[in-house]
Amino acid sequence: MKFKDFEYKRADIKDIKRNFQVLIKKFNEADSFEEQCSVIDEINIIRDDFTSMNSLSFIRKSLGVNKEFYSKELDYYDEAEPILDGLVCDYYKALDNSKFKDLHREKYGDQLFNLAEMKMKCISDNIIEELQQEKKLVTEYVNRGQSFKIEFEGEELGRWDFDPYIDSQDRNIRKRAFEVQTELYKEHEKEMQEIFDRFVKLRHKMALKMGYENFVDMGYARMNRIGYDKDMVAKFRKQVLEYVVPLNKELIRRQAERLGIETVKYYDEAVQFLDGNAELKGDINLIIEKTLKMYKELSPETSEFFKYIVEKDLFDVENREGKEEGGFCEYIPKYKAPFIYSVYRGTIDDFNVFTHEAGHAFQKYLCANYEIPEYCSSSEDISEIHSMSMEFLTEPWGEDFFGEDAEKYKFSHMCNALSLLTYICVVDEFQHFIYEKPEATYEERNSFWRELEKKYLPYRDYEENTFLDKGAYWLRQSHIFWGPFYYIDYGLAQVAAFNFWYKAKENREEAWKDYMKVCKSGGSKSFVEVVKLGNLKNPFEEGSIEKIAQSIREWVLGVEEELAK
């Protein structure tokens, strides 16, 4: 069955609530472990059906298929999902109080109970209304952002349509592109500021009702942070500051020399070479053909996986009218189907985004037969390891996609990953400030953001762009709005991906075996356990980032020297 034939039928939350209550009663009254396991299976079928219909609505609305209908369905799920979350919490409480708890722990593993504990720390009946409001606010924010348009070079562009111009070899074009893109944010500054303030106040209110001092610890619970806390995250950021920021400063200086300019301005950062960045070779159909070849050659598992994706039409990369911006992977458990979504613009990022989302999809494909939904997917700190590592593990096929620019691509990919790592720390520390000081004004938020840029991105020069120089760049970062405390997961995963990059250079076969172990574990282990399982360096341990940064520096300088010949 192909994706277009996947049946959609609204998951009725009233029926679900009724059935859940009956099943939880049945679970509590069960006389045997086996009977309770049977009830768990029934509960999970209901959960999988709900997730499937919600995901189908989101994908089809994003694709522009029957948009009005699926937009209304998503409005419905904004109301329904928090109710389901509350019901799942009731199930977790019953599981935690089960007289057969030890047997359940033996059957399903400790991680299910760890995840249940996290869920119960951030959801209760007395905040269902606020959770519904938050869902609606996310939808409002996304829809508003999709509507932002401005004219540039005779075209009407949205926020993310500027990438080809920002990557331009022509310095004047990329400067003007950034300036016009900035105008777009200036036009909508007030409404974005207002909607963000609503997010902050709403989340703070929920945290207080749940007994927290502020939203920070509740946010960590929502992200399923198991085995580490905000103090350990702060130490991680400190290591990035000590070992990655100086490396980036050196690389920016060398970038200026390559570009033949005195200093790298904010609109120069995306361009690594005077003759332009690496470019994808071929149209969208050829890129898909090459991707099929790449995954066929990468491993037997990826060959089988991508063949499945293509046969079932479980991807859409075309850039067309009516299709929404972005890149994501959604999972439809009813059909055991991961779906890869991206928008082809002919830039380096197209390759990065697709391989990134394919990493997510590959993990979900491998874990489709887990008994419980908690293990089919994983918390974001783990899931981003699958995706960010896939970006590096597919680099040997760079020549297929970039031709003679393959080494330029690998060089740019690594430099961009290092830059991203320090930017991630800006976002993360900023969010701690936001939720520790929910009463802060817009000006205070901007000021703190700019302080953090100077700390982690000390080379960033906004020239005469006063809007960005006052600290308003964060308005561009959607995760800050819809996914509080998500962004550091990219940082933790980036360090894991660097480990896989290094391991693959030493022994590719062993690196792939470890990557497969990480992917196959799905959500059955915590982040720290997964790092150990994959024979990776723990990013929280002192020295872990220093060592990999040294290895990366040696490689980057070596490649730069080769490219200069």
TrEMBL record:
<dbReference type="InterPro" id="IPR011976">
    <property type="entry name" value="Pept_M3B_oligopep-rel"/>
</dbReference>
<protein>
    <submittedName>
        <fullName>M3 family oligoendopeptidase</fullName>
    </submittedName>
</protein>
<dbReference type="GO" id="GO:0004222">
    <property type="term" value="F:metalloendopeptidase activity"/>
</dbReference>
<dbReference type="InterPro" id="IPR045090">
    <property type="entry name" value="Pept_M3A_M3B"/>
</dbReference>
<dbReference type="GO" id="GO:0006518">
    <property type="term" value="P:peptide metabolic process"/>
</dbReference>
<dbReference type="GO" id="GO:0006508">
    <property type="term" value="P:proteolysis"/>
</dbReference>
